[in-house]
Amino acid sequence: MTILIIDDSKTIRRALKALLEEAGYDDVLLGGSAEEGMELLKAQVTIHHRSLTDLILMDIIMPGLDGLQAVRALKDDPELTDIPIIVVSALDDEKKIEQAFEAGAIDFINKPVRKLELLARVRSVLRLKEEMDQRKIRETELAELNKSLENANQKLREISNTDGLTGIPNRRLFDEAYLTEWRRCRREKQPLSVVMGDIDFFKAYNDRYGHLEGDQCLRTVAQALLESTRRPGDMIARYGGEEFVALLPNTESTGAVEVAEKMRLKVLTAQIEHGASSICPYVTISLGAATICPEVGQDPSILLDYADRALYTAKSEGRNQVISIEND
Hints:
The protein is α/β, with parallel strands linked by helices. The chain has helices spanning 10-22, 34-48, 67-76, 94-103, 115-160, 171-188, 202-209, 211-226, 253-269, 301-316, and strands at 2-6, 27-31, 55-59, 85-89, 107-110, 192-199, 235-240, 243-249, 285-292, 322-327. It contains 10 helices and 10 strands. The strands form 2 sheets. Strands 2-1-3-4-5 form a 5-stranded parallel β-sheet, with helices on both faces.
């Protein structure tokens, strides 16, 4: 335990140090003024990045910065505020004693100091300081544990909301975001658009090239689709199998068609060889776009039904194209 004695009287400093060392406290520092004591404390922080002092015995009446001012300064310093301070003074002034406690002192000892009283109070305060330090350690460990748990939970949330193959949002996250945007657009009377896309002749692709190449095809298509949107609120997700979906809040029908056409062209220009396709030597995608201004009482699934219907039309009428349904 390190104890710092701050007193302008050399005789009292030495006497207090002798009493403490006799009781087994062999790490006792001395300061002849409040300024000198604070310099010692600051030097500890500079060298060790924390204060090594466990207790301060502080005289009240000193030239320059007095004890009360020093106590206030120490308690205002975030690096030194946790050091307990026992004020030591010959003053028999209740107001001064009260001011010392208000400033942040933890105890008070009258001069002349009596050995038994000094050691009893020092032991009590150091015991309290040790308990406080242990509690802070436990609080720090608990905070670190909570942070680790939160990071782990965040990773679990990301995993549960991400398609394991393509790395883009999965159906679960899309469904949550879709309902959120449906309610917001209904409340703000804004249009909401959805684009559903399906890779053309994907079963034939798998049969021709194998499932490993099929998985790579899905990953490449997913990345191409991601490049089709720019707004932070837009979402591209894997809807299931070879089907993808785009959620486009605050988007009119014309904007939805533009995004859908970008999606189609991005996939086409990726030039994924597809020798089993009857319409193109490369992988293509058919897309259905739908737009609606949600109203109170409407079933949110209606927009998804429209987009699915538009996708079915796009595939049945030749594939590799965009069909739009608008109901706004």
